[in-house]
């Protein structure tokens, strides 16, 4: 049974003011629009609240328009949090609110909710919304098992073995083989290149296996396969073993035992000395430079079977080149290395880092001049290599003086093309066998 307007009004207002308002409401329902305006003028003189004015206005509009059309109110899309990424975009929805006309006889006045009920409704809606968002967040942040596909395996293994660094190692080994005296043996050259590449892949894979907890803290290395969980540690170790064993076997029995011993020693030096030393002392940079200097020596020993002065010269060039290359690189990654817990010169001894880079830039000038004296190249080589050696020395001096990211980046990018060009010039000016035997200087 519908409640009369008198009963609802008596709940809202009491006393003399309540009776006055009830009288105005009754007249508003039964009177014509002209009388309504008259009542409104009289009500402005009395104590009528803003809520009652809104109610009277709604009654007037309802009586004039008996049938109201449906009103569509578009629902705004929720603002997505920048920390939550959603795969599918939600379409805009619309909520339809339908207002049906009602007869004045059955009209019931709405009860004004008190503040306690409003607070309860708001808190309930907030809790429901937070529960929905919590469910979505929990589903999105839930750990998911990454499945390994066969098509992705070559790329993952290439990143595990640092394929670009391995290519640099193989190229320096090839340069050492080509610069060695004697006839060029293609089969020995291929075996040396493949064996050195496999040994480098094994060393790099073991290095990443040991440094997973530390690589996860660095922006430069946080996307490595083991850090992201794309492959298991067992698979990484298995891959390293499958590269190390045949690589060392090829170098030992396919080339000569001296080259195989150098390859095995280099794997041990990189994985068991350089890798743990990176978190202990800045001496890791010098140990790492020895690791990078051994591949051209391996190329020389593969061609000659012995350690000659030319092998040490090539090793010295690679040894000195690595300091401006790596020190300039680490200068721009000081925050990353510090976050990862690595002990680098650029972090703990920045002045020494710049001095060492400059010293070895100048050392490249002296080593280039020693190449013809040791019978590796002709005297043309130090002359035509002088401009690029002077340029990298100039950039090393700028890096030493400015000590900023701009100078370090210039030195680093210069080192990327300096080494291939220097080795190419050495091959161009290589001293032939007849010239080396006669001992006559060539120009």
Automatic annotation (TrEMBL):
Xref: InterPro entries: Protohaem_IX_farnesylTrfase (IPR006369), Protohaem_IX_farnesylTrfase_mt (IPR016315), UbiA_prenyltransferase (IPR000537), UbiA_prenylTrfase_CS (IPR030470), UbiA_sf (IPR044878)
Q: Extract one GO cellular component term from the record.
A: mitochondrial membrane
What are the protein's GO molecular function terms? protoheme IX farnesyltransferase activity
What enzyme class is recorded for this protein?
transferase
Q: Which domain of life is it from?
A: Eukaryota
UniProt keywords (A-Z) are: Heme biosynthesis, Membrane, Mitochondrion, Transferase, Transit peptide, Transmembrane, Transmembrane helix
Q: GO BP, one example?
A: heme A biosynthetic process
Keyword Transmembrane helix attributed: yes
Report the membrane topology from the UniProt record: Multi-pass membrane protein
Give the catalytic activity.
Answer: heme b + (2E,6E)-farnesyl diphosphate + H2O = Fe(II)-heme o + diphosphate
Predominant location = mitochondrion
Q: Where are the transmembrane segments?
A: 231-252, 258-277, 284-303, 379-399, 411-428
Q: Where is this gene product found? A: Mitochondrion membrane
Q: What is its EC number?
A: 2.5.1.-
**NCBIfam families, per the entry:** cyoE_ctaB
Matches recorded under HAMAP family: CyoE_CtaB
> What family does this chain come from, according to its entry?
Belongs to the ubiA prenyltransferase family.
Q: What does this protein do?
A: Converts protoheme IX and farnesyl diphosphate to heme O.
Checking PANTHER family in the record gives: PROTOHEME IX FARNESYLTRANSFERASE, MITOCHONDRIAL (PTHR43448:SF2)
What is the name of the protein in this document?
Protoheme IX farnesyltransferase, mitochondrial
Q: Which organism is it from?
A: Myotis davidii
